[in-house]
Specification:
binds phenylalanine, elongated, single chain, BirA Bifunctional Protein, domain 2, 345 residues, 2 domains, alpha+beta, 11 helices, three-stranded antiparallel β-sheet, seven-stranded mixed β-sheet
Length: 345
C-alpha cells in the first residue's frame, strides 16, 4: 500500500510538471484528489487496515495530498501569471496615439456679465431677486406710479397678451413686487437680472433683451449712495478709469431721475466712432425712488427713502467685450461663443 501511495504521488507530481495549462492541472487534481480520485480511493480503504497500519498509512496519504496540493497551487499560479502576461502583451495600449478632442462649452458673454455683477453686489450685501416675465399691468406699470392712460406708458412699446397681462418691459416690475412682499421691512437691497420685452422693430434693437435692476430702500438713503454705488458698479465692470455723468431725465417711478453716461472706454473720452464723438456712452436709467411708489407699495415715504437703477445688459456686455452687433449675442454661433472660453476675460 505504501508503495502504491508513493507511486500515485510521484506520478501525479510528474504530471503536474508536464502540464501545459490550467485545464490540465485541474484534470490532474480531479484524478488524484477528487471524490473518485486515486488517493481518495486509498483513504476509503483505510477501514480494512490493521490498527497499527492505519495511522502510518493515514499520515502517508495526508503527506502525499499536501505535497500534491502545494505543487498544484504553484502550477496554477504560474499559469495564471502567464495568462495575464499574454493578455498584457496582446492588449497593449499605444499611449502615444493622439486622443479624441474634447469639445468644451463656454459661458455665454451675457451670463459672464450677469455673474460678475451678481458677485459684486452680493459682496456688498445685496440679494439677487427675480420675477415673472409674463407680468401684470399692475406690477409693470401701476404700482410704479404709471396709472392707466399715463402718457409715459408710451415710452415703452409693450407686448400685451390680454388687457391685464403683458411681457414685462422692464425689470422695474420686480421693485414693486419686492416692496409689496416686504411691506415696511428694511433694509431692501436687491439686484434683479432678467429678460425684458419691447415691441422694437429697428435694426439695433432686439424685441427681447436683458436688464439688471437695483433697488435699495432704507432710512436715510440719499443720492450720494446712488452715485457711489453706480461708480463702484461701472468701474468694476468697465475699468477703473471709467467716469460717470448724470443727466436729468424722467422716469415715473423715480424723482429726481437721471440718465447716466459713462466715459467712452474705447477712446477714453476723446471722441470716436463708438461714442459718436461725444466721449460719452448712455448706459443707465436711475433715480431716487418716487414717494408715490414707496407709499403705494407699503412704505412710509416720510420715514424711508431709496434709490433704483436699471441698465441694459446686452449693451453692457457688448461694450465690455467689444461686440459690435447685438445679433451675435442671440445667434449661438459656435465660432463666436468659443472666444469666451478663456478664463481671463
Ligand atoms: N426701467 C427703466 C428702463 O427700462 C430704467 C430705470 C430703472 C430707471 C430704475 C430708473 C430706475 O428704461
Amino acid at each position: 500500500m505504501e508503495e502504491s501511495i508513493n507511486e500515485i504521488k510521484n506520478k501525479t507530481l510528474d504530471e503536474i510538471l508536464n502540464a501545459k495549462n490550467l485545464q490540465e492541472i485541474e484534470e490532474i487534481r480531479v484524478k488524484a484528489l477528487g471524490k473518485k480520485g486515486e488517493l481518495t480511493a486509498i483513504l476509503k480503504m483505510m477501514g480494512t487496515l490493521s490498527e497499527e497500519d492505519r495511522p502510518k498509512i493515514g499520515a502517508l496519504v495526508n503527506l502525499a495530498k499536501a505535497q500534491i496540493t502545494e505543487k498544484i497551487t504553484e502550477a496554477e499560479n504560474r499559469f495564471k501569471e502567464e495568462e495575464i502576461n499574454k493578455k498584457l502583451e496582446t492588449e497593449k495600449i499605444d499611449v502615444t496615439l493622439p486622443s479624441k478632442k474634447i469639445i468644451r462649452g463656454s459661458k455665454h458673454p451675457l451670463n459672464r456679465v450677469i455673474e460678475e455683477i451678481e458677485d459684486l453686489f452680493v459682496s456688498m450685501g445685496y440679494d439677487v431677486a427675480s420675477g415673472p416675465e409674463l407680468e401684470t399691468d399692475e406690477y409693470c406699470f401701476e404700482r410704479l406710479n404709471l396709472p392707466k392712460g399715463h402718457p409715459a406708458r408710451d415710452m415703452q412699446d409693450s407686448f400685451y397678451i390680454t388687457t391685464e397681462y403683458l411681457l414685462r418691459t422692464q425689470t422695474s416690475a420686480v421693485q414693486a413686487r419686492t416692496l409689496m412682499a416686504n411691506k415696511d421691512k428694511t433694509p431692501i437691497r436687491e439686484i434683479v437680472p432678467g429678460k425684458t420685452y419691447r415691441r422694437e422693430d429697428d435694426a439695433t434693437h432686439s424685441h427681447q433683451f436683458n436688464q439688471v435692476e437695483a433697488l435699495v430702500v432704507d432710512e436715510n438713503i440719499s443720492f450720494a449712495n446712488l452715485k457711489a454705488t453706480l461708480e463702484i458698479f461701472m468701474k468694476h465692470i468697465l475699468g477703473e478709469n471709467t467716469k460717470l455723468r448724470f443727466r436729468p431725465s424722467y422716469f415715473p417711478f423715480t424723482e429726481p431721475s437721471y440718465e447716466v453716461d459713462v466715459s467712452c472706454f474705447k477712446c477714453g473720452g476723446k471722441g470716436c466712432n463708438l461714442c459718436k464723438n461725444t466721449g460719452w456712452i448712455e448706459l443707465l436709467g436711475a433715480g431716487m425712488v418716487h414717494p408715490n411708489v414707496l407709499r403705494m407699495n407699503g412704505y412710509d415715504p416720510n420715514k424711508y427713502s431709496g434709490f433704483a437703477f436699471g441698465t441694459g445688459l446686452d449693451r453692457l456686455a457688448m461694450f465690455k467685450y467689444g461686440i459690435t452687433d447685438i445679433r451675435l449675442l442671440y445667434e449661438n454661433d459656435i465660432r463666436f461663443l468659443k472666444q469666451f472660453d478663456r478664463r481671463d476675460i
